[in-house]
Specification:
alpha/beta; 8-stranded parallel β-sheet; 8 strands; globular
Length: about 300
């Protein structure tokens, strides 16, 4: 399969990235990050999460955050809303697109959200109905698609079953997440080939963590399978609190550099993206997780 001419990146740094950082981040700093990403040409930014701050302290203030975003035409500012209360809060904050998530692993589902996969999917039904009534788009995530910290390998057909449930209930796109970063290119190609037997490839996305250093290779393997949407996190922010040893999401800067080298358009200014990543890294007092950024900034 030939490589696509254009790829859409879903920037998850402000949500999936920051929620797993130990350093507290103010709403004003989050707003600066969202503005920096917007200025860099990012067209999809997952900016916050409407969950209880008791469980995810870093996502406190998401309503204030969305109220302060200087929205740019053509840019989607989305939020995670895992339950009906979260959806209602997101709606009140003016969010136009939300995300929901399920796991491909029963053990991970139980330890992450204290319910079975089936129960988690049932919880989404009222959210999907409310979203339809209010014209809100819903994107779905499936975690642990290439491995689980408790069960090990996950069968592609199990991933396909969960992804298909999300797609059938109304998620316009389903992102398959290698939560613990153990996937390899061969397994990635097999996964997308199996899942694409139930869901069109144009409705699938890839979400890769770089624990074993395979994220960029897995993205390339996904491109060969016709996948044209990828989640990434500026400066490689984040990880997974429920997956021991899991490092952050693949760095957006590294993905853009890879795609540019392949002649694939993203609409993103790499230099401005590097500036955005370094600014938030400085605020967090952490090393920049992007190899491209570190190389460019030290040159």
């Amino acid at each position: 399969m030939s490589l696509p001419q254009r790829v859409r990146l879903v920037e998850v740094g402000p949500r999936d990235g920051l929620q797993n950082e130990s350093h507290p981040v103010s709403v004003s700093d989050k707003l600066q990050l969202v503005q920096d990403l917007t200025d860099a040409g990012v067209s999809y930014i997952e900016a916050g999460s409407f969950v209880s701050p008791k469980w995810v302290p870093q996502m406190a203030g998401s309503a204030e955050l969305f109220a302060g975003i200087q929205r740019k035409d053509g840019v989607i500012y989305a939020a995670l809303a895992p339950n009906l209360r979260g959806f209602e809060d997101a709606l009140a904050a003016g969010v136009k697109e939300i995300a929901v998530f399920a796991a491909a692993s029963e053990s991970f589902s139980q330890r992450n959200i204290n319910c079975s996969i089936s129960e988690s999917l049932d919880r989404f039904l009222p959210i999907m109905e409310a979203a339809r009534l209010h014209g809100i788009s819903v994107r779905g995530y499936v975690s642990c698609v290439l491995g689980c910290p408790y069960e090990g390998d996950i069968a592609p057909k199990q991933v396909a079953a969960v992804a298909n449930e999300l797609f059938a209930m109304g998620c316009y796109e389903v992102s398959l997440g290698d939560t613990i970063g153990t996937g390899t290119p061969g397994a990635t190609r097999t996964l997308f080939d199996v899942v694409a037997g139930q869901i069109p490839r144009g409705k699938l996305a890839g979400h890769f963590h770089d624990t074993y250093g395979q994220a960029l290779a897995n993205i390339y393997a996904s491109l060969l399978e016709g996948i044209q949407v990828f989640d990434s996190s500026v400066a490689g922010l984040g990880g997974c609190p429920y997956a021991k040893g899991a490092t952050g999401n693949v760095a957006s800067e590294d993905v853009v550099y890879l795609l540019q080298g392949l002649g694939i358009e993203t609409g993103i200014d790499l230099d401005k993206l590097i500036t955005a990543g370094q600014r938030i890294s400085d605020i967090l007092g952490r090393a920049n997780g992007s190899r491209v950024a570190k190389a460019r900034l030290s040159a």
